[in-house]
Amino acid sequence: MQLHILASGSTGNAIFLQLGGAKLLVDAGISARRVEKGLRAVGIDPAELDAILVTHEHSDHVSGLPVFTRKFGVPVFARRRTWDAFQPAHHVEAEYRRELGNGLEIGGVRVEPFAISHDAAEPVGYSFRCGDIKCVVATDMGCVSERVERDIAGADVLVFESNHDVAMLRNGPYPEYLKKRILSNRGHLSNLDTGRCLARMDKKSGMHVFLAHLSQHNNCPELALSTVSQVLERQGVRLEQDVYLHLAHPCDTVSFAL
Predict the structure, then answer these.
(1) Which structural domain range is residue 120 located in?
(2) Does residue 8 fall inside a structural domain?
């Protein structure tokens, strides 16, 4: 398994996953040129992608899709209501659009979308299974339901939101309506939320967690890492044994192989 997080944050998101015989991209919320450059830098020909999987229609997850699909002809899967909510600027030509059902098989990989809580039309996270390996991408969530906990349980690799520090957000420059949106159960997970969920969920020993979608205004990598680490340690979770924590980045590629 190869995982390359090309970008993760409020300015754009794109994650490449190679598992079994499948080469997949989750979201393309950065420029098509940057997606192509990022893929080629890790030895991936963009034309060899089997599919692009969309989590939801917000621009930081889909802005690069129109140009990228026209150039490389990669099919794009999204929920029906997600397609309906696309803005004109993010329009993907009909020949590349595919409707996402309850799951699909690509190159020996079982792809299973699951509903998440976010202020989008029909947002999803993704679980990928191939043999004994399970990888999950789950960001842009205001809360973690019991169903989501079951969907992410037992993952070998989990890309998981740790968006903001509550105090930084409350005392920061954002207008009040935006603060309320982020703090709502259809907004984004705080560092504390993330730590608490990781502590209580059913974990596979040695799970690798990438703290993702960090806010550039209401969080910082060191704070996210320390907060989540402290919550886990207080609950008896052994870092570097039970759970390995890593940081995703909004601008630099973060790579991992299993």
Answers:
(1) 2-252
(2) yes
